[in-house]
Amino acid sequence: MSKRVVITGMGIVSPVGTGLDNFWTALTSGVSGIARITRFDPSDYTTQIAGEVKDFDFSGYIDKKEGRRMDRFSQYAVVAAGMAIEDASLNLDSIDRERTGVIVGSGIGGMETFEDQCRVLVNRGPGRISPFFVPMMIANMAAGQIAIKYGLQGPNITTLTACASSGNALGDAFKLLQRDDADIVITGGTEAPITQLAVAGFCAARAMSTNNDNPQGASRPFDANRDGFVMGEGAAMMVMETLEHAEKRGAQIYAEIVGYGSSCDAYHITAPDPNGKGAANAMKMALKDAALSPAEVQYINAHGTSTPAGDPVEVGAIKNVFGDAAGKLAVSSTKSMTGHMLGAAGAIEGAVCVMAVKENLVPPTINYETPDPECDLDFVPNKARKMNVDVALTNSFGFGGHNVTLAFKKFKA
């Protein structure tokens, strides 16, 4: 018999706040974390805005020397994992470390390190490249660093499916626990892509908003005047446990994860299938896995990137799956506030769903001003909504056609 799986702790590093309480308060207050880029001078870039993490300090979780040997994406992950472990009141001396795993998603990995070392190579030659270059850059190192810090010897996996990466991480952690291959999994996603090369690449692809004069209003999912996504960064980590293990140690329980769907458009390297079939299939798979009917879902945290092409495809996919029930759903995109955190998006939006279920509170889609006839669902415009949320879904879609849907449910013993 499959094990039930619950979320017992969460840690957040985000553009709207670090720490779960700060994050949730900002999000439900409609606070935007988007501003002009400060990491480098963006004057020559068509997009000059992003959702940067502010005032990040790893000193409470990472030794200074070790921190210098980590790329920013690993630092974010280790700090968020530490927060999640504390939030779960997890006593590491009392757990079976061989049955405690780590699964982390990242779409890009150590881009900042990669760029820095390319400059060293060009300007100073190959003999000056850091011996830590490779272990700082590779995308699996966030999961590796978490395991090393906390001595976690169970399955250690990195998922890399572009902007669906941490959605897959959460889903794979769920399945690992469900089949009793672990007692606990630290899982989530991390990304630190606000670098000169990454921003230039997305600018070249013409994927991002150029509304540089109005940073906080630039990310406007489902609005008729949207003109592209806004990049974000950060990390979100969860402590997932089998219900049996959580109850045995008397853990708090935020919510239960009950469904996971994963599919591929098999259509194009960047564009979504205009029919939304892959996205719809992921949602259908998650509902089937959870043994839920569409009518039992109250809230969807949409992928909702604020791109002209992507948003109506997701709306069409939701209508395909939910039929008449689609009009009764609350659907919001928190990317309107955090920006698009790429490989970390699925995890942070999974955390949003967990909190929505726990608090019966749905965060808004801010900057929703002009309705788009192609996007005609209830997008919880501009103000959080107090409502009953028994079941919440989150969608994550990535370049290459990757689609993930996760289903979370109010915990009942």
Description of the molecule:
It is built from 13 helices and 15 strands. Helix 3 packs across helix 6 and helix 10 packs across helix 11. It folds into two domains: 244 residues, Peroxisomal Thiolase, Chain A, domain 1 (3-Layer(aba) Sandwich); 146 residues, Thiolase/Chalcone synthase (Peroxisomal Thiolase, Chain A, domain 1, 3-Layer(aba) Sandwich), CATH 3.40.47.10. 32% of the residues lie in helices and 19% in strands. The chain is α/β, with parallel strands linked by helices and 413 residues long. The strands form three sheets. Strands 1, 2, 5, 6, 7, 8, 9, 10, 11, 14 and 15 form an eleven-stranded mixed β-sheet that branches.
Query: In percent, how helical is the residue content?
Result: 25-40%
What order do the SSEs take from the amino end to the carboxyl end, as H and E? EEHEEHHEHHHEHEHEHEHEHEHHEEEE
Most strands sheet: 11 strands, mixed
Remind me, CATH topology of the largest domain? Peroxisomal Thiolase, Chain A, domain 1
Radius of gyration: 20 Å
The total count of helices amounts to 13
Mean pLDDT: 97
Low-pLDDT regions: none
Supply the CATH superfamily name of the largest domain: Thiolase/Chalcone synthase
Overall spatial form: globular
Percent of residues in beta strands? 15-25%
Task: Give the distance, in angstroms, between the N- and C-terminal Cα atoms.
Answer: 17 Å
User: What's the number of structural domains?
Assistant: 2
The CATH architecture assignment of the largest domain turns out to be: 3-Layer(aba) Sandwich
Total number of beta strands: 15
What is the CATH first-level class name of the largest domain? Alpha Beta
Quaternary structure state of the chains depicted = single chain
What class would the helix/strand composition place it in? alpha/beta
